[in-house]
Amino acid sequence: MTNRVNWTSEVIARMGKVSDQEIADTLGCHVSSVAKKRKSLGIPWYGARSPEELALLGTMPDAQLAKRWGVKRDSVGYLRRSRGVVVCRATSLWTAVNRSLLGTMPDTQLANILGVCADTVRNARISAGIPAFRTWPSEWIALLGTAPDSQIAKRIGRAASSVASMRYSLGIKAYQAPVLWTPERVALLGTDTDAQVALSLGVGVHAVRDERNRRGIQPFGRLRRLPPEREKQLGAMPDGDLAAEWGCAAAAVSSLRRIRKIPSFQTQKPWTPEEVALLGTMSDAAVAQRVGRSKEAVTAMRRARGVSGASKSLPHPHLEDIKREFTTTSAPIPEIAARYGVDPHFIHNRANKRGWVRPAG
């Protein structure tokens, strides 16, 4: 908070039109300072109104009365509710006189006169079956929605905002360039969020969402969390076959598999019974080194077969064999490690902890 306040003419002009607290927040001072200054200038509190003014509450929309008083609509709404006055409904707004004005001027202009938003006027006009007010040549009207607003604006010499406003008032949708859905583009649907796919393709989000829904492809967010039974299927069969079973794009299955670092089914060599028997008997990393596969491939196969992972508290099944070779032979440690599917650091750590000694010379 500052001790000295700069009471500019703009600040004083706002007094009585907005709350003292709002002015205090703007100036960074205490609300009592604003109230004291306002009272010294003889400006009434922004909620203070004469009996004649209070009688207007609920007789017209809050926005219209706020414009008449020169205050915010929220201020009028607060004052009306504090006195238990019912809000003016849209039905009371559209008197015979106001209804007769629909379509005689732009919706935005009539909205400013009535103190309501343009959508209120537009919806009332459409409900009454009254066409929008047209001040543009029919040739210009025919162009709306056939190209981007910016291009039409350059063509007719108007601002793009003016073109957009006229198009909206007539209920004409914005131009959307047609998208050629090639097989490569279709393959991206469902592999990421619609917004990200749209960004990568340079098209609108609605175009991506509509095409994905039309093809029955599930959105990416729903596929990221899979039931346990589907998690086990990833990498256990070709992505295309799995996509057909799940009813989604093959690219979506591939993306989910890659996120989990599961190798594709096509790159896996068949598992032998001896290799399968090793699953769960040691760490996945140890099995991977032993059978010459990636750790992710071993983990995926173990989960697919419902085999629990090896407990870290259990000793290595070949620990005694490793100790025997380490202490009685001169075989290099990397060679011993490769033979038993462990990392050389594993043997070094065990030897140091257990006091294993290599044979002399």
Write the layout of secondary structure elements.
Elements: H1 9-14, H2 20-27, H3 31-40, H4 51-54, H5 62-69, H6 73-82, H7 90-93, H8 96-100, H9 107-114, H10 118-127, H11 138-143, H12 149-156, H13 160-169, H14 183-186, H15 194-201, H16 205-214, H17 220-224, H18 228-231, H19 239-246, H20 250-259, H21 273-278, H22 284-291, H23 295-304, H24 319-328, H25 333-340, H26 344-354
Helix pairs in contact: 2-3, 5-6, 9-10, 12-13, 15-16, 19-20, 22-23, 25-26
Structure summary:
With 361 residues, the chain is mainly alpha-helical. The protein has 26 helices and no strands. The protein has four domains: 9-90, no CATH class; 93-169, no CATH class; 183-304, no CATH class; 319-354.
List keywords for this structure.
single chain, about 350 residues, mainly alpha, 4 domains, 26 helices, about 55% helix
Low-confidence stretches: none
The whole-angstrom Rg is: 37 Å
Helix content: 55-70%
Mean pLDDT: 79
- Alpha-carbon distance between the two ends: 82 Å
Structural class: mainly alpha
User: Biggest sheet, open or closed, and with what strands and sense?
Assistant: none
Q: Structurally, how many domains make up the residues?
A: 4
Total number of beta strands: 0
Spell out the helices and strands N to C: HHHHHHHHHHHHHHHHHHHHHHHHHH
Number of helices: 26
**Shape verdict:** elongated
Q: Beta-sheet strand percentage?
A: under 5%
